[in-house]
Design goal:
367 residues, Enolase-like, domain 1, 8-stranded parallel beta sheet, globular
Length: 367
């Protein structure tokens, strides 16, 4: 096959509400749309789509740097031949090894095009590459994220989302402990049947994280998990929360690579790992990391940065190829003020069902 063209453009979509986490805030997506044209040996061509989604400071790359690096990559890759996905990965590593967000966008777009040419969904391409015969999970039930805001406003958002069919809330915490406690109480009071996933984005020390769990439990909240309570490199603190919280701890910022997974396992610093395309550099690496997490006996979450339907669909294909995951966090397309893409999945409340069409089976709106 040949990668005959790589086109890139800013992908900035306004959010309905500011997306505030412990480490930053965004008001619109800070991504780059990648379109890859691939031609096969029979002369047939297909165009695939990928989203290189930045969320600074969680990601080192931001939109201006992404555009610059991807424009250079586009010129370097024009006419690139590749015999299989392994050869493609080697070339991507050579050009974008230190730019995982950019790499993820390119790899996703190329894989989408290849899967379209082969007439198979992306999840089948991923599973087939390593001979896996896991039955795909096409329907996933996502949580809904409540960004940091005034506690009363977070509760109002929860009521609105509950009416739309969401029952599990991923609550961003880690910026102000007292406000976190008030927000959890406020949401629980107005949506008493809700379940909660806490996400501190590395904002707490171990003692503060454990105290938040104690406060939440004493108020009667149902806690499903606690994502990245402590600093990414503070595995001792992560391990303490893992031992003492009595709630599954999910590593996010702590694990981007297989090497970091080994360190996490050795430290017994989490019960599970959150997979994201842009952390690992694309669908293939995220899928491989997920397989390694499974072999280690840990649980899986699938998530993203602040991404459109495009990024959410691509991550859903990774989860489907893995046979499903314990925690689904593929909600950010619902938080956007505009829809730039159509297809990919059907949404009914919190349920996302992949269409099963070729590639991502998704296109730009209006095309």
């Amino acid at each position: 096959m040949h990668l005959t063209q790589l086109a890139v453009a800013p992908l900035s979509v306004p959010l309905l509400e500011p997306f505030v986490i412990a480490s930053g805030r965004v008001d619109a997506t800070r991504a780059v749309l990648v379109q890859a044209t691939v031609r096969d040996a029979q002369g047939r061509s297909a165009v695939g789509l990928g989203e290189a989604a930045a969320l600074p400071p969680v990601t080192r790359e931001d939109q201006p740097e992404l555009l610059a690096s991807l424009q250079l990559t586009a010129a370097a890759f024009e006419g690139l031949p590749f015999a299989d996905l392994g050869q493609l990965a080697s070339r991507l590593d050579a050009e974008l090894a230190h730019a995982p967000v950019a790499r993820a966008g390119v790899e996703c777009a190329v894989l989408d095009a290849v899967a379209r040419l082969r007439g198979v969904p992306l999840f089948a391409l991923l599973a087939g590459a390593d001979g896996t015969h896991t039955a795909p999970r096409l329907t996933l039930v996502t949580d809904m994220t409540l960004p940091i805001a005034e506690p009363s406003h977070m509760a109002e958002l929860a009521v609105r989302h509950r009416a739309a069919g969401f029952r599990v809330f991923k609550v961003k915490v880690g910026k102000s402990f007292d406000d976190d406690v008030r927000a959890l109480h406020a949401v629980h009071a107005l949506v008493p049947d809700a379940s909660f996933r806490l996400d501190a984005n590395a904002g707490f020390d171990a003692e503060t994280a454990l105290e938040l769990v104690r406060r939440a439990r004493s108020a009667g909240l149902v806690l499903e998990c606690f994502e990245q309570p402590c600093a990414a490199t503070d595995l001792d603190a992560m391990a303490r929360v893992t031992r003492e919280a009595g709630v599954p701890v999910i590593a996010d910022e702590s694990v981007k690579t297989l090497a970091e997974l080994d360190l996490l396992i050795a430290a017994r610093a989490a019960h599970g790992v959150n997979l994201k395309l842009v952390k690992s550099g694309g669908p293939c690496a995220a899928y491989a990391l997920g397989r390694a997490v499974r072999r280690a006996g840990l649980s899986l979450m699938c998530g993203g940065m602040v991404e459109t339907r495009l990024g959410m669909t691509a991550m859903a294909h990774v989860a489907a190829a893995l046979g499903g995951v314990e925690y689904v966090d593929l909600d950010t397309a619902f938080l956007l003020a505009e829809e730039r893409f159509v297809g990919g999945y059907h949404a009914q409340g919190a349920e996302l069902t992949l269409t099963g069409g070729p590639g991502l089976d998704l296109s730009l709106a209006g095309r």
